[in-house]
TrEMBL record:
Keyword Ribosomal protein applies: no
Protein name: Aldehyde-activating protein
Superkingdom classification of source: Bacteria
Domain CENP-V/GFA: 5-129
Keyword Lyase in annotation: yes
One Gene Ontology molecular-function label: metal ion binding
Keywords in alphabetical order: Lyase, Metal-binding, Zinc
Protein family membership: Belongs to the Gfa family.
Length: 153
């Protein structure tokens, strides 16, 4: 486990790590994130899949098909621990090829959460949830150019 950042599921059987800070971090208020997390939103960071390693544990993926009203976009797979059901990361991102969304709630260090740079799918944010002082997007955003360059290199 020599990655700079690490995380785990609720039971601890699934562990993972990555070295480079996410190139994009968002609070997603979409209805898929609500159902998958059980909360009003999910906070996740985009990490290069080449930098992301699962160290241990058995995972299972649940595929979300194309949905323009949620962050599923053109499709993605949310991955969770088969033992405890904790949602850990999201892969097979049709809209962010070469990337993985890491669920920040699973990071080991509370002090190492990466602050959101945007809030997305705000059309389905609950009226009692205040907006952060970051760009707000009714729906999604396109892949940041920096991450595309980094992945290409
Ligand atoms: Zn678990
Ligand atoms: Zn979402």
């Amino acid at each position: 486990m020599d990655k700079k950042y690490s995380g785990r599921c609720a039971c601890g059987s699934v562990t993972y790590g990555f070295d480079n800070p996410p190139t994009f971090v968002a609070n997603c208020h979409c209805t898929d994130c609500k159902r998958a997390s059980g909360g009003e939103m999910a906070t996740f960071g985009l990490v290069a899949s080449s930098d992301f390693t699962v160290f241990s544990g058995e995972t299972k993926g649940f595929y979300y098909p194309k949905n323009s009203e949620t962050c599923a976009g053109n499709g993605l797979t949310r991955v969770f621990c088969v033992a405890c059901g904790s949602r850990v990361f999201t892969n097979e991102l049709a809209d962010f090829p070469g990337g993985v969304f890491v669920q920040e709630g699973t990071l080991d260090q509370l002090s190492e959460w990466f602050a959101p740079q945007a809030e997305i799918y705000t059309w389905s944010r609950q009226p009692w949830m205040p907006a952060l002082d970051v760009p707000q997007y009714d729906h999604g955003v396109t892949a940041p150019a920096e991450s595309a360059d980094a992945n290409a290199g």
